[in-house]
Amino acid sequence: MTLPSAALRLLLAALLTLAASCGKKEVVEAGSPLPDPAFGKVSTKTFGCPEMQGVYAWPPVAGTWAGRGPTNKVPGEDGIPVPIYGGEMQIWVLEKGGEVEIRSRSINRDPNYRTTLTREWSFRIFQKNEVSCKANMLEFAARPATNPEEYGSKTAMRSFKLARLEDGSLAVGVKNLSTGRRGAIFTWGDTSAGSIPAPDGAYWSWSKLTQLGPGDKEPAPIDASTGIPR
């Protein structure tokens, strides 16, 4: 069967693109590795990074998870940067000599609903060798993600950044890097042929968290049912 001239031109263009990209590690990015400028200015420091420690409110006031997030994703996937259960939460960031601990727990404003989740913390600890300071932001080493198929890849790695903003709030940027993706050599309508390596994909999402307190000591639980006789 003879290919139409237009299809032949598309096939040749695809082959030329493949040949030109051989040996190159290409990454296609979606989103930005920097906080949304609409969040406000990032705090700066002459040496090192601004302090990220503090107690912050979930859900975010702006960004990906403000309001309704993507329906096929959940905040805090794989507990990175910290488990998120939905609803209102306290997020507590602690810095200890280069080590960073991030905690989360629920807020309950219903006096008729009793739960232990307002007093028990979920947490992740990131060792000094997993944390670096770059461009006034803390960058955290990537950890394996358990859902690479959602990004059309064989493997996925998840990392994140923290940026302190001048108004005291915290910008949290999560990066999903998918590798081992495949693409078709040639497509025509609903038909595709062949398989070639596709570029890695980096997907960024940012959220802005309002500050609730300095984080120098454990915050009190927020639970409307506390003290009610059981």
Automatic annotation (TrEMBL):
Keywords: Signal. It comes from the Bacteria. Residues 1-19 form the signal peptide. This is Lipoprotein. It comes from Usitatibacter rugosus.
